[in-house]
Amino acid sequence: MRKNLLTKWTKRCILLLLLWPFVSNLAYAQTGNITGKVTDNNGNAVPGASVKIKNTNRVTSTDANGAFKIPDVKVATVTLQVSYVGYQSKEITATTNKPISIVLIEENNKMDEIIVTGTFDKRKRMDASVAITTLNAVQMERIVSASAADLLKNVPGVFVNSSVGEIRNSVASRGITVGTQDGSFGYEYVSMQEDGLPITNTTYYGYGPDFFLRPDATLGRLEAVRGGTASITAANAPGGIFNYVSKTGGDNFEGEIRTKLGLVGINGRGYSRADLNLGGPLGGNWFYNIGGFYRYDQGGRYAGYPMNNGGQVKANIVKKYKTGSLKFFGKYLNDRNGYAQFIPTTGFDNPKPAIGFDINSTVLMPNVNYKSQDFIYGGSMNFNPSNQVKNTYRSGGINWQQDLGSGWSLNNSARYSSNTILYNTPGAVSAMSATDLTTYFLLTGNTGLGIGTYSFKDAQSGKELMSVNSALGAGGLPVYTVTKNELPGQQLRPNSLFLTTFGAYKNNVKEFIDQFSLNKSTKNMNFTIGGYFGYSDIHRYSGLDGVALGTIQNRPQLVSLTFTGITLGGTSGLHQVTNKDGIAQANGDNGASLTFNSKQKQAALFFGHTWNISEKLTFDWGLRYENVNVSGYNERVYMKTGVQGGVDGDPKTFYDNNTVDKITTVNFDKTLHTFSFSGALNYKFNDNMAIYGRYSQGKKAPDMDVYFAANRPETIGLLNPMERTTRQVEVGLKARTKGLNLFVTPFYSILSGVPNGQMFGAVGGGFYVPPTLYGKYRTLGVEIEADYKIDTHFSVRGVATLQRSKIAEFEAWVANAPGPADDTKISYSGNETDNNARTILNLTPTYTAGKFYTFLTWSYLGKRQANAANVFSLPGFSQFDFGAGYDINKKLQLSANINNLFNKYGAMSWVRPGGILEGLEGNNAFTQTLYNQAVQNNAPYSTVSIPPRAYFLTASYKF
User: What is the rounded distance in angstroms from the CA atom of residue 875 to the CA atom of residue 863?
Assistant: First the structure.
């Protein structure tokens, strides 16, 4: 029996051995892929979540749509460990070849976010000695931003002026705001980036990054670095880096359609917009993402034509392989944008629109066609203000990330772009007096002055609105007497009209940018060496000298002007000062016809070292060397004086009498070398608290305006570009509790080498630029960022900046008589820095209940000194924005927003009282004596407010 039993077990073992290959193959036949999607409790995709098979090294990350895939899993069921910053980690069982849906519950935890911008290696915020704020796609979708820069109001330490519209904004950090009240110069100290590369490598008057940067449904994340390593890891960025990161495709096809309708302004002007984003696999580990937007916006300050009209398309294709990835990306933007002009204002202590104007008013001129001579290249140029500013951006690039093994890795990004900005919009609007000799001199020149009668008429109806007699006065110059006045707006400035200068500039810039970094990681150290190259081929043409006369009212009407009499040039009879539409020429050597042509070559090398001295203590430092060469030439047209017939040969048609006398050319070739340094220690007390300290010295070359301002043979010798220098000390505290994330960063910054450009009236007419003076500023402040989740329904996010800024060194020229002979200097050293708010607050409480959310954002901008002389302060003000949304299902969401809920008139920028000459002298020339006179006379000045109240309804469909 025992023998039979042994025989039976022997047979079973032999049978098992014979069947083992089949059993084994059967087991392997059960292997496959683990796929699925990770969403939050509202059904929104969670990109970048970590998905790991427990007790293995098999791990992947979700794509921009929350999808993931782990291929070639050898067992039928596994336990997945899923985690993402800001959400509770989760373990769940998954089966091969059966897609799984995973829902993560949100928690309030920002410390474990992985950051890449402004650091030498990827690391958590708790471990990084960098002041950085991140905004994800969900946060940005819930607000309706006025522009790309407007999103940065959610970042502490950053001052944003987006009052004029989508373009010509100002962005500055840590008190570095000098020279940035005019949005034309608003990005000189920061780098606005898209996917890690600057939008453009050059800035100058009327040209900058926000002409080509638009947030839309393709935007996945925003990383904002203030100071610190920004001067090492990026070009031209001692103030900060703001990186707009695009979505990429994942393992599953997904997309979003977003439509937005709005009523903007008190009259409910129309706003409509559509966004689209699509992404997914192409096969063979290729992935794509494509999207963009189109928008039509009449604007809350409607001028009779749309303020914004156009859109963009963005796309990227990614190839992933075992040791790296290759990404190709491109963008095409074609957009027309207007910007708000300053409107008449009264009350320096409490600025309000002057009588006849309100927050919805505009002083932009009406739709009109005007053809002017092209004084440089011949032929003619066309102008129509309804064309606004046309921005075109064509770009293509590549990003290569490669793991080289043994701790080595390589990252290289390159992009070529062709950028065009065509200005066809009013340049500035100021008041002019019909009893002031300067007005007529500007329109007709010296030989056009005369004795007789001036008649101002409505350009459309022909009705006479004002009549002025000119008689010979003391000194042999005419004096003017108003005999009839039916013009509107005369209670603001008697016997006056608006004078609008034309802005017709064409900017063509072709650029190539490349940045690479080679990284070596060891057990406790990381080394980075990298390089940057930027080449810009710049051509700017300013070729229009037109000016228009208009009534002082909301949406001014054009006014034509004729003169009947005898002129100093010897002509007599009827003279046409303007054409039939009310457009004249700015007579004489006004500097309206110029070309700027330059090539900027910028090369840099940088090095970074991070040393994890212990589990708690980390030291990092870095340095950057830059070589910037700018070479090129400027051309300037000089006009003839005396009696000229112009295009039609008739000396009595003043509106086309400008005639070229000569065209001069000046050449320049300058090179600057700069060296920047930054170093920091980060001490981690525990997983919930850390502190860091950093010192940085950042330098950058000046923008192109320094070179373009030197456009006369007699001033080219004064060209002496100087680098701007920032020195910053910062200490950062990072702390968290169960529901609170807190970042507190005191800072001290010094900015030096800041140019003060001015323009004055020359002898015999025209204008001149005095030698450039340079200033120095100090700012002491603290940045605070907090996210507090009170319970499952209530949360609060707040950012705050408290700062005081002083002028350490600053001088300005004071013009006396025309010409530079008697110019003097005045010092403002010791005063408070102008246009620098002491307090900037942004507080957003949010209530969430299931599929519903609502929030109310309170923003407060504290008072700011109006100019370097500190003659008065622009008062602080509050703004409230409301939002609410409801998820109808996992795919469809509706949301509503009201911006500027109480329609607050918050003055952001101002222009001193007076006319065009006073405006050219600048706000810093507005002295205490002039201020006292203006207050006594209740003289109007001009301001731009935050945008008026606007209502938006958005429907988003995700699939």
Answer: 4
